[in-house]
Amino acid sequence: MGFIVYFIILLIIPMWAQFKLKRTYGKYSKIRSTSGITGAQVARTILDRNGLTDVQVVESRGMLSDHYNPLTKVVALSSHNYHDASVAGTAVAAHEVGHAIQDAEDYSFLRLRHRLVPIVNISSNMSWVFIMIGLFTNWSGGLLIGIILLAAGVLFQLITLPVEFNASSRAMDQLLEHNIIRNDEERHAKKVLSAAAMTYVAATAVAVMELARLLLIYTNMNRS
User: Fold this and answer.
1) Catalytic residue check, 96
2) Which ranges does the record mark as transmembrane (predicted)?
3) Distances in Å between the alpha carbon of 17 and those of 14, 112, 159, 179?
């Protein structure tokens, strides 16, 4: 029974975070910003005023596909955020530019996360192979290898948290400094950014819980 409850919790946590994000984003994407400028213009304005004229702003396909690529120096905004002048789009655009500013300032956590990407791409695919072999064959060594590989992914997610929170903090500072948002928009923009951050917190919580469960299984396997 406890096993079932555990997996229900694992499902509920990220589902709740995604629901909160979609509801919050949906609400504030319908509210036009008082500045009247699109997400693309918000991004371009903040980038230029921080001397990042070499960073491009492009449109990205897909819902909430917004991201910053440190390799290509590109801020990609989903169609709605790119073209519309909404409070949500303004917040998201500023957040992605926050990552560009982190990159320009050589923010340590962003650099570390970037260096871990190739390692995590390999370890995340291999970890569950060893974990499943270890569990089904009762081979503790295989399970330990899987746990170590999985731990690299968990570390990546833990490092992602300060990167995302810092980008949001930078976003709010930039929006206020350049008078892009006014009055209640500050509170609304913070809600959008907080909801987005919760998806990372939820994913990290699930990953840590699963790693702890596997470590407990490994410990009990060795005892028996």
Assistant:
1) yes
2) 6-22, 142-163, 192-218
3) 5, 26, 19, 30
Per-10-residue mean pLDDT, the chain, length 224: 78 93 96 95 98 96 92 96 96 98 97 94 92 93 95 96 97 96 92 96 95 94 80
Q: pLDDT value at position 14?
A: 92
Residue extents of the structural domains in the chain: 2-223
Strand, coil or helix: what is 67? strand
The two structure tokens encoding residue 71: 């390799």
Whether 87 and 33 have beta carbons less than 8 Å apart is answered as yes
Cα-trace Rg, the chain: 20
- β-sheet with 67-69: strand ranges across: 56-60, 74-78, 67-69
Q: Is 203 left (phi over 0), alpha (psi -120 to 50) or beta?
A: alpha
Q: At what angle do helices 87-104 and 39-49 cross, to 10 degrees?
A: 30
Strand bridging mode 74-78 / 67-69: antiparallel
Contact 190, 119 (CB under 8 A): no
**What pLDDT is attached to residue 62?**
84
